Amino acid sequence: MKFGFKIIKKSKKSFARAGILETPHGVIHTPAFVSVATQASIKSLAPEDLENLGAEVILSNTYHLYLRPGSAIVKKAGGLHKFMNWLGPTVTDSGGFQVFSLGWGQVHKIGKIGFFPGFEEIEQYKGKSPKLVKITENGVEFSSHLDGSKHFFTPEKSIKIQEDLGADIIFAFDECTSPLAGYDYTKKSLRRTHAWALRCLKAKKRKDQALFGIIQGGDYKDLREDSAKFISSLPFEGIGIGGSLGKTRKNMFKILKWLHPFLPGQKPRHLLGIGNPDDLENCVKRGMDLFDCVWPTRLARRGTLLIKKGRLNIGNARYIKDFRVIEAGCFCYTCQNFTRAYLSHLFRAKELLYHRLATIHNLYFTLNLMRKIRENILKGKP
RNA sequence: GGACUCAUAGUGUAGCCUGGUUUAACACGCCUCCCUGUCACGGAGGAGAUCAGGGGUUCAAAUCCCCUUGGGUCCG
């Protein structure tokens, strides 16, 4: 099967659309949530669990797999799919996010959105620079977070690694800038990311992988628009929207509104790293097709379970004797078989099964939400 | 019967010798919050102790002295 994207239905009330993305390893019904398997594993789940959840696609990370076990090992295993025995569609991130998460993200102690520091707090970062990451025009030098060893990523190297890993969808190597980066830095970084985008296209050899470009530009309107135009003009098979999405979620919606007029209508759009339930719904309405996020899985492991009303912290004392299921009416394996009291016990006892049951629930919740959003688009609802 | 030794939040300990910097610290536990292209089953707050009880010395005692109670070790 070849790569292809068909839009089946567009909403009349918003920019939402439902489509089918074909990959050599199967189809993805969009809008879709891509479960995150950074190290070639959805933490605590087996591929069988994913199938039962109805997950269609997963995302692994180039940087992590390059460091361990090494992309040569994965290649020798027959590629990511065979290595981890997940036969459905896969995506790899380029390592570009680690330029941020191991770099300025660490210095600023910040994620890609949220948290608005005061002036004094910004002051304290002056003169500081990332320790694990060194960025030049040619590429990025990483100090491995595992053993401190030095590694140099260029756009060409990222593509080579991603070709060795063999995912169906791969991403251009970019720099995700910090929400605290100023205009000048963001502009300079964007030029570099654009140059890298061209180099990625040129470096790509495999025909059975789809390469997505990535729009950057922080929360600066002119930069975002420039980037949207530039990336959209190139022969990428899809568009990633990355980087700092502003200091609040409202800001993120504003950025998506800026971008929309410049996005090619027929290419899939992947909003990188977003995923809490509210954001998924709101960003589909703003024209996004694909999402990947650690939100449901990470929260699950740390004791937060997703419910319609918001969240449930299973570590709270009131769940010790609560013999109800996480959410009445939920059809996930966990809710079909276990109570809050049992999950509370597993969580407190640090039993490994807790991670699996909680991850199953949160992923089911998220995937089910996406299914409902899609159905509504097909029915012409939102 | 005698000698020695120990007693600090729920648990385990630090502080005691060389009294004031102790509004008594730490770990685990407990209570709550946070987490958006995962370095991280992580991060941030919070509650909780008449320092076994009583007396004494001193400007000042968890800290030095005495007695009582309770536990432990050894000797008869």
Spell out the blueprint of helices and strands.
Elements: E1 4-10, E2 17-23, E3 26-30, E4 32-36, H1 47-53, E5 58-61, H2 62-67, H3 71-76, H4 80-84, E6 90-93, H5 96-108, H6 119-123, E7 133-135, E8 140-143, E9 150-153, H7 155-165, E10 169-171, H8 183-203, E11 210-215, H9 221-233, E12 238-241, H10 249-259, E13 269-271, H11 277-284, E14 290-293, H12 295-301, E15 304-307, E16 310-313, H13 333-337, H14 340-348, H15 352-378
Parallel strand pairs: 4-5, 4-14, 5-6, 6-10, 10-11, 11-12, 12-13, 13-14
Antiparallel strand pairs: 1-2, 2-3, 7-8, 8-9, 15-16
The chain binds one RNA strand of 76 nucleotides through helix 5, strand 14, helix 12 and helix 15.
Strand residues, percent: 15-25%
CATH architectural grouping of the largest domain: Alpha-Beta Barrel
Strand order of the largest sheet: 4-5-6-10-11-12-13-14
Number of helices: 15
Number of domains: 2
**What structural class should be given to the helix and strand makeup?**
alpha/beta
Gyration radius over CA: 20 Å
Shape: globular
**CATH class annotation of the largest domain:** Alpha Beta
Main sheet?
A: 8 strands, parallel, barrel
Distance between the termini: 32 Å
Number of strands: 16
- Mean pLDDT score: 93
**The named CATH superfamily of the largest domain:** Queuine tRNA-ribosyltransferase-like
Q: Under CATH, the topology of the largest domain is which?
A: TIM Barrel
Can you give the helix content as a percent range?
A: 40-55%
